[in-house]
Specification:
single chain; 74 residues; mainly beta; SH3 type barrels
Length: 74
């Protein structure tokens, strides 16, 4: 499924090494950036996490909270 970063207020979305708020932040995904879900969901810290990869840069791969991901049409 393809998703887009949405609702971060232009702050970007923290992409973590593993699901959970204690996971190391690997990078920030930009508001509006398109991502592909590659794993999940995992429930951790009372949140739903998905492993996503940037469509524009395959090297950007990490776990993100569902709250800031919006499904988009392919």
């Amino acid at each position: 499924m393809t998703v887009q970063v949405n609702g971060t207020g232009q702050d970007g979305l923290r992409m973590r090494a593993e699901p959970g708020t204690d996971g190391d932040v690997l990078f920030l995904a930009n508001e509006g950036e398109t991502l592909m879900i590659v794993d999940g969901p995992v429930i951790q810290d009372s949140l739903i996490w998905w492993k996503v990869q940037s469509v524009q840069d395959a090297g950007k791969l990490g776990w993100s909270v569902q709250d800031y991901l919006a499904g988009i049409q392919p």
